[in-house]
Design goal:
alpha/beta, Rossmann fold, two-stranded antiparallel ribbon, 7 helices
Length: 238
C-alpha cells in the first residue's frame, strides 16, 4: 500500500493571504498541502491535532476582537492544545499573534502605529539559529503589514525585531515559530493584497504604486533567502 504523504495544514483568514512561497517548498519536500478557512466553523479539530505541520496565516483582524469574530475562540483553543503537545506549528502575522495569545501573552494595538512596507530585520536578543540567518543578510528586506503587536511568550526565544517593533519573531524550542512579518510574500502574490487591502491602504494614505515598486525590487532578493529559511527551519523541526 502507498504511504500517506505528511500533511501540512494551513489555516487562512482571508483567501489572498495564503502560503505563497512556502507552498512549493512544502510540496517539494513531499507534503500534502491543505488550506482550511478558519472563519468557517467548526474547525477540523482532528486534522489540527494530527497534521505533521500546522501553519496559521495572517488576516486583517485582531486577536482581541473575539466578540466580533467568534471563530477566534475555538481557533485559539485548538492552537493551545496543539502547542501543549509540542506539535510543529508556524504562525505568520495574525498567526504569530494567535500563537502568542494561546501561550498566554498579551496582544494589543502597536503604539508606533501600523507597520506596512519593506524593511530589514534586526537580530533578536537570543542566539540566532543557523536556519534564521539567511533573512538577516544585509541585502534582505521583509514585508511588514500589521498594526498589532504582542508580548514575548514565556519561555520563547526572541529572534528578531524591527526599527518600529521589538517582537518580530520568536521560537518555542524546536516545535513552534512565530513571524510577525510576511516571509512568504512574493511580488506576484502581493497583487491580490493590493486589491484585498485597498481600503486600508487608501485610508492610511499609502501609495499603492510605490509599495508595488518596492515589492518588485525586494521580493526577488527575499525569495532565495526565504527558501533557505523555510528548508532550514523544516529540517530543524521535523
Amino acid at each position: 500500500m502507498p504511504t500517506a504523504l505528511p500533511l501540512a495544514l494551513a489555516l487562512t483568514h482571508v483567501a489572498f493571504e495564503d502560503l505563497d512561497s512556502l507552498q512549493p517548498v512544502l510540496e517539494q519536500r513531499g507534503f500534502s498541502v491543505r488550506l482550511v478557512d478558519a472563519t468557517n466553523t467548526p474547525l477540523p479539530a482532528d486534522l489540527i491535532e494530527s497534521a505533521n505541520l500546522l501553519v496559521v496565516l495572517g488576516g486583517p483582524i485582531s486577536v482581541y476582537e473575539q466578540d466580533y469574530y467568534p471563530f477566534l475562540v475555538p481557533e485559539l483553543e485548538l492552537i493551545h492544545k496543539r502547542l501543549a503537545h509540542r506539535r510543529p506549528t508556524l504562525g505568520i502575522c495574525l498567526g504569530a499573534q494567535l500563537i502568542a495569545a494561546a501561550l498566554g501573552a498579551r496582544v494589543y494595538p502597536g503604539t508606533a502605529g501600523s507597520e506596512i512596507g519593506w524593511s530589514p530585520l534586526l537580530p533578536g536578543l537570543g542566539p540566532v539559529p543557523a536556519w534564521f540567518r539567511p533573512i538577516l543578510q544585509d541585502a534582505v528586506q521583509v514585508l511588514h503589514w500589521h498594526g498589532d503587536t504582542f508580548d514575548l511568550p514565556v519561555g520563547a526565544t526572541h529572534l528578531a525585531s524591527s526599527e518600529l517593533y521589538q517582537n518580530q519573531a520568536f521560537a518555542l524550542e524546536d516545535f513552534a515559530l512565530g513571524l510577525q512579518f510576511h516571509l512568504e510574500a512574493t511580488a506576484g502574490g502581493l497583487e491580490r493584497w493590493y486589491v484585498g487591502h485597498t481600503c486600508e491602504l487608501r485610508k492610511k494614505q499609502i501609495d499603492i504604486q510605490a509599495l508595488r515598486s518596492v515589492g518588485r525590487r525586494q521580493a526577488p532578493v527575499l525569495a532565495p533567502a526565504a527558501r533557505a529559511f523555510w528548508n532550514g527551519w523544516l529540517d530543524y523541526i521535523l
